[in-house]
Write a structure and sequence with these properties.
about 40% helix; alpha/beta; tRNA dihydrouridine synthase activity; Double Stranded RNA Binding Domain; 12 helices; single chain
């Protein structure tokens, strides 16, 4: 659970959760509206640990405290917790669980990345997931050439090339293909035996309906094929006409952390705007690019369509991104917040 603004209510909530019979409780030292830029309230976690009778697991110390293995124990003692839950600190430094006091030296970052990429190729990890993990490990190197090279990678082979691992890539791919062939032979033999049993058994039959393939979601390419007219205006905004609806296409990234408060999301702002002008409620259409595991949405507002080409990891985020395009074109403040160098949050009223 995340803490509440008031200590008393936070402790009361923790006790309520304890009363349900849970074996332990994890406490993150920030409220639901706060992000990593805000201070983790370790003293609140400590107060909860002293107030309940079940183990408390402390969370939220990745940014300010936990940088190596010894910091984990320090964070635990600081919060009087039974244990520690780590997320970002482990992504930044996968070797964080190895103590500095052991005789064996800690692996270097390059070694960790190379080992990770080897396993990614071996087990056919998707490029999107591999890039995400490598970029998290390189979080201190943002803007450097190697960071930009990772961002530009489109395949696991591209990532391996950055660290001169093409020989490893080819070796692992060869082994993986061999495993697939052996697996396919096993499946084929099993299928033959199974078919022989079915043929010899008059009580078993297979209908063609049972072999039908379920309909897939539309992909990005299929959506773009429906585009009939392409226009570019003086503001470099791409416009198209689909099914007699004018469509505006922009690429505006949507990041959830910039809309932390309830009631101020782009979709809610647009909904209130439509109610004010007595327009019909916005309608959404979402498509999935399965190759990249990304979602793209279009929103229909007052007879016009607005589409965002910035990829999102979920349908919910893609809809918010589409609304950003609409708000931008209509000149409506999108409610985005910004953090300055002092971590103060300001509202985007432009």
């Amino acid at each position: 659970m995340r803490i509440l603004p008031e200590l008393e209510k936070t402790i009361a909530l923790a006790k309520l959760i304890e009363s349900t019979g849970v074996a332990a409780i994890t406490i993150h030292g920030r409220t639901i509206n706060e992000r990593s830029m805000h201070r983790n309230r370790n003293e609140v976690i400590q107060a909860i640990a002293h107030s309940v009778g079940i183990p408390v697991l402390a969370n939220g110390g990745s940014r300010d405290i936990i940088r190596n293995h010894e910091d984990i124990e320090y964070f635990r003692q600081l919060t009087s917790a039974t244990g520690v839950v780590i997320a970002r600190a482990a992504m930044w430094n996968p070797a964080i669980f190895k103590s500095l006091q052991v005789d064996e030296p800690l692996p270097k970052l390059e070694e960790i990345i190379c080992r990770y990429l080897t396993l990614s190729v071996r087990y056919d990890h998707h490029i999107a997931g591999a890039k995400y993990c490598v970029l998290r490990m390189l979080h201190d190197f943002g803007g450097t050439p190697i960071y930009e090279d990772v961002l530009a990678s489109n395949e696991l082979r591209d990532l391996c090339a950055i660290w001169n691992m093409l020989d490893v890539y080819d070796h692992e791919m060869s082994n993986r293909l061999e495993r697939l062939k052996n697996h396919q032979l096993t499946l084929n033999n099993s299928t033959v035996n199974c078919n022989q049993e079915i043929i010899s058994s008059p009580s078993l039959s297979v209908s063609s309906d049972s072999l039908s393939v379920p309909e897939k979601r539309p992909r990005v390419e299929e959506h773009l094929l429906n585009t009939t007219t392409v226009l570019v205006n003086d503001n470099n905004v791409l416009g198209v006409k689909i099914n007699n609806f004018e469509e505006t296409v922009l690429s505006i990234p949507y990041e959830r952390r910039f809309w932390p408060d309830h009631g101020t999301s782009p979709k809610q702002i647009l909904r209130e705007h439509c109610k004010l002008l007595k327009w019909d409620s916005p309608k959404y259409e979402t498509i999935e690019d399965r190759n990249k595991r990304s979602f793209f949405s279009t929103v229909l507002v007052n007879g016009k369509r607005y589409r965002n080409t910035s990829a999102c990891k979920s349908k919910k985020y893609a809809e918010q991104a589409a609304v950003l395009v609409c708000l931008h074109v209509l000149g409506i403040p999108d409610g985005k917040v910004h953090a300055d160098e002092n971590n103060k949050v300001t509202l985007n009223n432009k």
